[in-house]
Amino acid sequence: MARVLVLIDTGHGGQIDGKYDPRAGGRKFTHPDGTTIFEGEFNKYIATGIIFELTKLGIPYVHLTPEYEDRTLQTRVDRANKYRRKKCFFLSIHANAGPAPNVGNGFEIFTSRGNTKSDKIATIIGEEFKKMFPNKRLRTDFTDGDLDKESPNFFVLRKTAMPAVLTENFFMDNFQECKNIMMTREGRNKIIDFHVEAIKRVISELY
Ligand SMILES: [Zn+2]
After folding, report:
1. Ligand 1: distance of its center to the CA of 146 in Å?
2. Mind listing the pLDDT tens digit for each residue in 148-180?
3. Phi, psi for residue 171 in degrees, rounded to 5
4. Cβ neighbourhood burial of 175 (10 Å; 0-12, 13-18, 19+)
5. Which one, 8, 11, 30, 37, has the greatest CB density within 10 A?
6. Domain tally, the chain
7. Residues within 5 A (CB) of ion ligand 1
8. What pTM value is reported for the model?
9. What are phi and psi of 189, to 5 degrees?
């Protein structure tokens, strides 16, 4: 396998001393039964699980945002772009929600604009998602021929100098997805595992 560096960005901050800092849009959601999810905590759990597997596999990575204090989008991009001369790609982990009162469901991937390698990475991630969660929705737009959505609106996707994708791993405000997938170890491990399977394929098929 080629030596490819995986740049992992975990969206938003975490909890410190019982306080959650939802700067830059990090959300939390409490369901009527009391189930509460903090997006930043969820993102860090998924990223940590991915990192554990990459370590075992000997795949090099950089965790761009290991701190529990939130970091600005510019800081995230600056940290990623230090590696622009290496063979690398950028993976940002997030969870979805709303906008209220509409409750969505499923998995979404966004890519940097017009970068064909980002599209190919997103396609592989989508395929691995479907293998792991065949009954869950891959929210995609096939009309333009690629699996993913290009979004000019995500700063980290616009400003990073390497292929970049952002995954939105189910909907915090969807009670079933939150309770059964996002807030269970089993569900989180499945999310970790399909990302890892995708990363392995990206490295062997695209580099
Ligand atoms: Zn987010």
Report:
1. 23
2. 455 557 889 989 999 999 999 999 999 999 999
3. -110, 120
4. middle
5. 11
6. 1
7. 11, 94
8. 0.93
9. -65, -35
